[in-house]
Amino acid sequence: MHKPVAELALIEQIRSGSRGGARFPCVALGIGDDCAILRPPRGHEVLVTTDFTLEGRHFRRDWHPPQSVGHRALARGLSDLAAMGARPQAAFLSLALPAEMLGTRAGRLWVTRFFEGLRYLAGLHNCPLAGGDTAESPADLVLADIVLVGTAPAGRALRRSAARPGDALYVTGALGGAAAELGILSRTGKPGRRVHRVSMLRTGPVPPNPQLYPWPRIEVGLALLRRHLATAAIDLSDGFSTDLTHICRESGVGAEVLAAALPIHPLAAKLPQQAIRLALHGGEDYELLFTAPASVTMPRSVASVPITRIGQITRGSALVLIDATGRRSPLRPGGWEHFTSA
Ligand SMILES: [Mg+2]
To answer: Does pTM surpass 0.90?
Structure first.
């Protein structure tokens, strides 16, 4: 079936700015042929992750600006690479758009801005869009699927299964901000604070708009791997409690978490009654949760991102939350359950 003219124009839009293979040594052939050709560095393994970005489930067009939707689509995949200490090498995007969007000026502007957000974050991480597909959406919904390819030195990628009893438990950045900002969006239809392009930049310890423009911790993941600072790691997409459960199940261990030690994002801290709940169960913070042997001297920050010790790995399988008074209670996974667990 021939593609409609509007779709061909869209493909051209994807292609523009995606050339320049010389800057991306891993991409031997990018957009323009039937397949992309990738050439991983010698002695490295290839890591692949795929993530849906579905309107109504992962974003709302009336809450999330188009730049944010593009940014978040890529950030989800980049964060998975960060969790394993991988370097991003190429992204592939399949995008289904409602017919009315391709047929109107406002719709085409939305798509242009979507790519603006995606490209900006891709540029920060030197990760080219090396292929993709477009189609007319069967519903009035924007549906995207992104594939991220990264590389890591053979046998060195950080895994969920490597936590051991006695290891210390750490998180990067701050927690609860994405859920706090989502709460503000749902109540007011507006972001928690003025959204500025600086939100998309990485200048500061935590993202100012964590729901709209999360900062995948690529540099932290690379440094943890390079400096042998972590045993197991995962990115916080579903929520701290759920993602900690993933690490513990995969490693066959339990964990104790100190509630008072959890770093709270400023947007969550404005809601003192809910702050701990947002930090534990909120989801979509895209920070890293990782373990390291107690003998490792952990720096206060890695790649300019604050690192906080929040508990330890224990024998058995119990997840325990310890409050400021020392009272212990079971910590149950309460984060979001997405369709995919990657
Ligand atoms: Mg993940």
So the answer is: yes
